[in-house]
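In practice, a research group might receive sequence data for several interacting partners and want a quick structural hypothesis before committing to experiments. The following worked case mirrors that situation: the sequences arrive first, and a predicted assembly follows.
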Amino acid sequence: MTLKNKKILFIVGGGISAYKSLDLIRLLQKNSVSIKTILTKSGKEFVTPLSIAALTKNKVYEDIFNKNNEAEIDHISLSRWADLIVVLPTTANFMTKLSIGKAEDLATTVLLASNKDILLVPAMNVRMWLHKATQKNVKILQDYGYHFVGPQKGEMACGEYGEGKMSSPRQIFSYLKNYFNRKNIVKNKNFKALVTTGPTREYLDPVRYISNESSGKQGYELALALKKMGIKTTLVVGPSNLNFSKDLKIKKVISANNMLDEVKKLLPVDIAICAAAVADYSPVKKNKNKIKKDATNLSLIKLEKNPDILDFLGKNNKHRPKIVVGFSAETENIIFNSKSKMKNKYCDLMIANDVSKKGTGFNSDYNKVAIIHKNGKIQNIKKNKKSYIANMVAKIILDKLLMNDKNIN
Ligand code: CTP
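A structural hypothesis for the assembly, expressed as tokens:
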């Protein structure tokens, strides 16, 4: 059973739909889920601690300072205990608090101190949901890695109709089943991934090189997103100024040939994403000493083609990753050129990005991409943070991997 013995920490917020948390708790209990609950001050206006305690058979946490439990720091221990935290209902006000990192009570402090996935279940009036301030918060929270279920369209408690209605306990229940199902599969299958990112440097002499503008950010975010899903991920990165998380396995390389060597060492993997801006050419001869100003014939630096790492992975007979993903940096005919690269390099997905415009792509925190599938389907993703795009792409990749995997139940 997918949900058996899973541990969920509920934060019950202050909204009319708070009463539905009781139905959901009952459903989960029937499926042997352990539940602990934090009831916010405004949540208490809608449900009583007694009704939750009776259902969960656990005490309900309300205060940040618990005099009866000195040995435990509740805001840390509660988050560490849980497999997942669910905030239900998530009000517009609560989203604002989360988006600015408030830690004013037990609920907000637990969430700020959490190292677990957090699921928000919004419920509010349609105007409040569609308000620019709320939509801005949604983007910020998605960027922080919060997950959302709903809201749905429908008639609300206030009598108005539109988007803002909380997902039903059944809908949340199936979301949770699917979430834990995927987690279990990823864990059992022990999926591995490699991601290349950053530029490469092709040296002419000890101090000069050919390189490009790539920061490595998009590939880094992708590696973080895959890792967060429980996939063992290694980032192979060319010279980059980013401060990488210590939690991520990183292999630093310089040239295209170094990068290929590291990639070969990491095989076999289930997923390979080539986000690196690999230099296409390198000098045939690398001077041992610095080339002097008076050297002649400098206009005739001879270049040779570098190995194509994506092509090597896509056409690899022995260890072809189950999913091979390429990036395609283009300034014109973006989709056409990307499609032909995808075909030539045997990729399963191609992420096309327009590098002609300032403010997205190379060296920016933002990107605007089109995801091209093998069957010709194209998903356009509006300009957004690279972390957001990474989470989306990682989810699509995992879906594909799970679909390919015949042993999935
Ligand atoms: N790539 C690679 N090794 C190379 C060149 C490119 O792995 N030597 C990968 C990139 O990481 C990217 C994809 O191939 O995933 C496409 O790279 P891009 O620079 O857009 O295209 P190229 O194939 O190099 O072709 P061109 O420069 O002519 O557009």
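Before designing any experiment, note the following. Residues 195 and 320 are 14 Å apart (CA to CA). Residues 196, 256, 274, 276, 278, 280, 306, 308-310, 326-329, 341 surround cytidine-5'-triphosphate (CB under 6 Å).
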